[in-house]
Amino acid sequence: MSALGTTVTAIRLTVxxxxxxxxxxxxxxxxLDVLRIDLGLTGTKEGCGEGECGACSVLLDGKLVxxxxxxxxxxxxxxxxTPEGLAESKAGKxxxxxxxxxxxxxxxxxxxxxxxxxxxxxxxxxDPDEQAIREGLAGNLCRCTGYDMIIDAVLMAAGKxxxxx
Length: 165
Prior knowledge:
Elements: E1 9-15, E2 18-24, H1 31-38, E3 57-60, E4 63-66, E5 79-81, H2 83-88, H3 90-101, H4 111-124, H5 130-136, H6 147-160
Parallel strand pairs: 1-5
Antiparallel strand pairs: 1-2, 3-4, 3-5
C-alpha cells in the first residue's frame, strides 16, 4: 500500500527483447505512460491520447495497438516491440532507409508509429499493393508528408525486404 491507501501492482513485460518489471501506482495507467515515463522509451509518441492518430503505435504480442488505449495491467506478461526495438532490427533499418529515400518523413512525429504500422503490415502481407498499404496505415495520421511518399516507402521496403518480414 502507498501512503494514499492505493495498491501498487507489479507487472512484468518483455520490451524489445528485455524482461522488465514495472510498479503501477494505479491499475488504469496507460501502457504509453509506462513505456515513455518508466522505461524511458520516448520513440512512442503521444499525439491525440484517444487512439485516433497512431503516433503511439507499438506491437503487443505481435499485434499493432495504440498504446494510449491499453491499460498497462492488460499488458502484463506480454511481449512489446517499440520504435526503439524496431529500429534495432534488420526490418527497422530497411524501413528507415526506405522512408528516408522516399522522403516519407518530414517533421518525424508520426514516423515511429508509421514505421510500426508498416512493419506490422509487411509481417502479415510481405507483398502488399497500394490499396493494402493504405488500409494497413489507415489508423496512422500524418499532417506533413502526405501519404504518397509513405506508400512509396512501404512499397520499396516490401520489394527490398521480402526475406526479412
